[in-house]
């Protein structure tokens, strides 16, 4: 029996509210911030303007101390300081890989920890953020999947990861300085820990904040959400977020995908492909990225490559081949370089871009699927991992 359904229910009923204590302004939508300010005594007719001012301080200038919000009256600043906080996750460790990749372990309320990875490239930089502590899904090749879900991140904890990275990169604008068009942190990928579409509202609100023109200002084209294929939420992503979509595809038959990405049992390939076909129209986005992890002898044959092309026929697509990143106890091996190249070649000849993703930050376990905070103890045994993989 598929055990995912009841667990999923639990996740969806996890309250969105942050743990108790003063209200954190980080992560509130503009409307929610307005309501919070009114509840704290701000006259209704002023509330929209106050939101605009505070929003700009927090998300444009990176200011978190109410005292520095100098266009607000002193008394009003004091009231804010009594009632609210502007808090982001705390950095516990920061590791820098030989290739410049930075991995942050950040602590969130409740003492949980999640990982955030910054990957610099020549003309841009991508931040890989997490949406959950652990994951309820159990993809058999994924390290995060061996860690049971602890909880959903709040919107503040999700956008807070972006703010942590901007702090570390020194990327908040300096008043009076000329506008810098080249951004160190120019792209966000929701490819860290967790299944973003099982934490939809918080992910949506956080990404709306990232896109807001009066703050961090990242275009929706520079945000990519990766999902294992939560079909009903894919249409919602198109409508309510409108970002780029990446799909953890990984197999070309239901039989193999059931083993690799068990949520496939609930939403098999045919249903998934139907949802993907509609995505570009509804979101007005370009290509869907098909992520395909290369597992030796499992999903990497020429026949797989040809089947893949047939399946995605008609969908504007880019196929991202990911050499499997091994982790201790992993039940798979990475395909050989020759095999990956041969697979890529078939796809390329069919007219698709098929970049082979170079693993980044492997020396600090920051590569795809390697993320898992060492502090979370609720793990599965090796035997369980092998069983889930159908071995
Ligand atoms: N839960 C979401 C996003 C996080 S995983 C999802 O599954 O899409 C981000 C990407 O890393 C996914 O494509 C995932 O399949 C891939 N991945 C997971 N474990 C991996 C591993 N060990 N090696 C390579 N890629 C992996
Ligand atoms: Fe969860 Fe994604 Fe890992 Fe699957 S691949 S277990 S959905 S984080």
Give the key terms.
391 residues, alpha/beta, DNA polymerase, domain 1, TIM Barrel, 2 domains, 9-stranded mixed β-sheet, two-stranded parallel sheet, 12 helices, 35% helix, 16% strand, elongated, binds S-adenosyl-L-homocysteine, binds iron/sulfur cluster
CATH homologous superfamily name of the largest domain?
Answer: Aldolase class I
Order of helices and strands: HEHHHEEEEEEEHEHEHEHHEHEHH
Mean pLDDT equals 88
Poorly predicted residue ranges:
1-18, 373-382
Largest sheet: 9 strands, mixed
Strand content: 15-25%
Work out the number of β strands: 13
How many H/I helices? 12
Helix fraction bin: 25-40%
Number of domains: 2
Which class of the largest domain in CATH terms? Answer: Alpha Beta
How does CATH name the architecture of the largest domain? Alpha-Beta Barrel
Using the alpha-carbon principal axes, give the shape.
elongated
Q: Specify Rg, calculated over alpha carbons.
A: 21 Å
The largest beta-sheet arranges its strands as 3-4-5-6-9-10-11-12-13
Bound molecules: S-adenosyl-L-homocysteine, iron/sulfur cluster
Give the terminus-to-terminus CA distance: 17 Å
Q: Helix/strand/pairing class, anyone?
A: alpha/beta
């Amino acid at each position: 029996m598929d055990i995912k359904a009841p667990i999923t229910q639990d996740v969806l009923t996890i309250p969105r509210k942050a743990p108790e204590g003063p209200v954190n302004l980080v992560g509130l939508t503009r409307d929610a911030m307005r309501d919070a300010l009114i509840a704290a005594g701000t006259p209704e007719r002023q509330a929209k303007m106050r939101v605009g001012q505070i929003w700009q301080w927090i998300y444009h200038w990176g200011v978190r101390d109410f005292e520095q919000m100098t266009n607000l009256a002193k008394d009003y600043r004091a009231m804010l300081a009594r009632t609210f906080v502007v808090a982001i996750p705390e950095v516990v460790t920061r590791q820098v890989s030989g290739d410049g990749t930075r991995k942050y372990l950040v602590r969130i309320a409740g003492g949980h920890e999640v990982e955030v990875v910054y990957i610099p490239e020549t003309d841009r930089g991508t931040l890989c953020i997490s949406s959950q502590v652990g994951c309820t899904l159990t993809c058999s090749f994924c390290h995060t999947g061996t860690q049971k879900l602890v909880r959903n991140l709040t919107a503040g904890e999700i956008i807070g990861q972006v703010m942590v990275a901007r702090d570390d990169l020194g990327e908040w604008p300096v008043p009076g300085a000329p506008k810098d068009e080249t951004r160190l942190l120019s792209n966000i990928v929701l490819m860290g820990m967790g299944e973003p579409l099982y934490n939809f509202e918080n992910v949506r609100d956080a990404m709306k904040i990232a896109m807001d023109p009066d703050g961090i200002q990242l275009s929706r084209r520079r945000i990519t959400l990766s999902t294992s294929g939560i079909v009903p939420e894919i249409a919602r992503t198109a409508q309510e977020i409108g970002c780029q979509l990446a799909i953890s595809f990984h197999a070309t038959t239901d039989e193999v995908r059931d083993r690799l990405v068990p949520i496939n049992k609930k939403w098999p390939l045919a249903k998934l492909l139907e949802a993907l076909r509609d995505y570009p129209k509804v979101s007005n986005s370009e290509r869907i990225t098909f992520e395909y992890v290369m597992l030796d002898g499992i999903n990497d044959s020429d026949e797989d490559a040809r089947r893949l092309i047939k399946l995605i026929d008609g969908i504007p697509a880019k196929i991202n081949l990911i050499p499997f990143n091994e982790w201790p106890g992993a039940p798979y091996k990475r395909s050989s370089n020759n095999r990956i190249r041969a697979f890529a070649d078939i796809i390329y000849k069919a007219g698709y871009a098929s970049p082979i993703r170079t693993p980044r930050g492997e020396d600090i376990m920051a590569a795809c699927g390697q993320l898992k905070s060492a502090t979370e103890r609720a793990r599965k045994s090796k035997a369980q991992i092998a069983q889930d993989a159908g071995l």
